[in-house]
Write a structure and sequence with these properties.
It is a single chain. The chain has 13 helices and five strands. It has 375 residues and is α+β, with helices and mostly antiparallel strands. It folds into two domains: 2-206, no CATH class; 223-374, Alpha-Beta Plaits (2-Layer Sandwich), CATH 3.30.70.270. It has a five-stranded mixed β-sheet with strand order 2-3-1-4-5, sandwiched between helices. The protein is rod-shaped.
Length: 375
């Protein structure tokens, strides 16, 4: 029962606020503004109850604010389908809020100056969605709208709305809005710079991580990373880890690679290493890892593989390498490798298995190269 209740609650939240993080964030902002509207409508009701505001226009304003808030929920919730950008929604909501503020100012009577703080809050909210120049333009729009409202009120009823008081109120509002727009703009610029620095730092860390694990020339695992994998494999195969598993390692060495460097130069030698790495990687199983061990020597880790299965991988690799052609290399020069294969014994460090594979590799070279010897 509790599980079903939790699932129903999660489903209701997904239906109301969507599943996308960006949409949820926008609707969270909407919920915050909705709470402000609720607070404003409640205070407006108090003004009516205490005789500061007329009931009918206050009711019209409250219904308009509530209806507009619900309409914006629909627009935000289905903004993807309606193809409404976040900036457009932010501007529309801000202009609507400014309009509500103008109406509230006209109805508030002696409480009107306190309502101007809500306009500052509107401009501050815009900093989360708009660029600094857009926020400043919106502040100018708020000043024009509220300034026009103050002018109309002072000209229509100078006794209740003294022109000098309205002028001073407008001056304070202008100072507050402009300074808020400028400060929020600077904060937005600072936030954008921090985001760019964060992205740069993330990219730098990813580069460092790549350099720490990948051989730059061949794009295979490097020796450092292979040692990490071997340690992890030893822990996985430790006596207390459950049923024993079989794993193999193989040392590979490109045949007569020194001749390629001597006759054609290191640039072509590097090309041979890159082409070999790409071709050999395509012959591996999913969990196998091939690493550049040093120079033209490579180490292959074959987890969960008996010697026969491991040998099949090496033979498949050898067949593909035989078909390899590198531009600039004499077509008569067939690329091949010699390999020494060893199965890791129970409880044996991989260093010992690699040592036995190394001895098998030397036997493969001594027996004519282009072959696989098993330890």
């Amino acid at each position: 029962m509790p599980l079903r209740s939790f699932s129903a609650s999660a489903g209701a939240q997904a239906a109301l606020f969507g599943a996308e993080p960006a949409l949820r964030r926008m609707l969270n902002y909407w919920a915050a503004t909705a709470l402000l509207y609720v607070a404003g409508i409640s205070l407006l009701a108090c003004q009516v109850a205490w005789g500061y505001s007329a009931a009918f226009p206050a009711t019209v304003l409250a219904c308009s604010a509530a209806g507009g808030t619900l309409c914006f929920y629909v627009l935000i919730r289905f903004s993807s389908a309606l193809k409404l950008p976040a900036e457009v929604l932010a501007v529309l909501q801000s202009l609507f809020a400014i309009g509500c503020g103008m109406g509230a100012y006209a109805l508030a009577g002696p409480m009107r100056a306190a309502l101007l703080t809500m306009t500052v809050v509107i401009i501050a909210f815009c900093a989360f969605a708009l660029r600094p120049r857009q926020t400043l333009l919106l502040a100018m729009a708020a000043l024009l709208g509220l300034g026009g409202t103050m002018l109309r009120l002072s000209l229509g009823d100078p006794l209740r709305y003294p022109p000098e008081v309205e002028a001073m109120t407008f001056g304070y509002l202008a100072a507050a809005l402009v300074s808020t727009a400028v400060l929020t703009g600077e904060m937005m610029k600072l936030r954008q710079r921090m985001q760019r620095k964060t992205l740069d730092l993330t990219a730098a860390l990813e580069t460092i991580r790549t350099l720490a694990t990948v051989d730059e020339l061949t794009a295979l695992a490097n020796r450092r990373y292979m040692n990490t994998l071997l340690q992890a494999e030893e822990r996985r195969q430790s006596p207390g880890a459950g049923h024993p598993v079989r794993s193999c390692v193989a040392l590979l060495d490109l045949d007569f690679f020194k001749q390629v460097n001597d006759q054609h130069g290191h640039a072509l030698g590097d090309a041979v290493l890159r082409e070999f790495a790409a071709t050999a990687r395509g012959a591996l199983r999913t969990r196998d890892t091939l690493a550049r061990w040093g120079g033209e020597e490579f180490l292959l880790l074959l987890p969960d593989a008996a010697p026969n299965a491991a040998r099949q991988v090496l033979e498949r690799m050898l067949e593909r390498v035989h078909l390899l052609h590198v531009e600039g290399l004499d077509p008569a020069h067939r690329i091949s490798f010699s390999a020494g294969l060893a199965e890791r014994r129970s409880g044996e460090p991989f260093t010992e298995a690699i040592s036995r594979a190394d001895k098998a590799l030397y036997r493969a070279k001594a027996n004519g190269r282009d072959r696989i010897e098993t330890a």
